[in-house]
Design brief:
Blueprint lengths: L3 E10 L2 E10 L2 E10 L4 H11 L9 E2 L9 H12 L6 H46 L2
Antiparallel strand pairs: 1-2, 2-3, 3-4
């Protein structure tokens, strides 16, 4: 059976409140960033998740390494305390978001290049048409 879990971290990144959705499926982590604007209430965040979760565009999964469990109870207690500390965005989430940004950047460049080539072709054809009209004497 495939293991799935998710996490939402809301934090203040000057000047807006930002939420980072992290989704772990199997051995990969994907993330999505949402800007809330003003400080959201818990009910606002819950309403947003319920209404828009399916519309979120998560990044491609970043592989996760399996962590070895510590046998020492004090070490486990320290690890649990570290997990409880608000750390903001995890580095794996940042990597996933960066990968998504790069993907969108290359897609945007490809689209822009195609549009530019189409516009150049249109201008060339217009120029050729005007040249033919001048040659005909119209």
């Amino acid at each position: 059976m495939d293991e799935r879990c998710g996490q939402l971290t809301v934090f203040f990144a000057e000047p807006f409140w930002v939420g980072v959705f992290e989704r772990v499926e199997g051995d990969g982590l994907s993330a999505c960033k949402v800007t809330f604007g003003a400080e959201p209430k818990d009910s606002d965040v819950l309403a947003y998740v319920q209404k828009h979760y399916r519309e979120l565009e998560f990044s491609a999964p970043v592989p996760l390494e399996a962590r070895a469990r510590a046998d020492n109870p004090k070490r486990r207690q320290r690890a649990a305390a570290r997990e409880m500390q608000p750390t903001g965005v995890g580095t794996k989430s940042q990597q996933a978001l960066q990968a998504q940004r790069e993907l969108m950047k290359t897609e945007r460049k490809r689209i822009t290049k195609a549009e530019r080539a189409a516009e150049e072709q249109r201008r060339f054809e217009l120029k050729q048409q005007k040249k033919k009209e001048r040659k005909r004497g119209h």
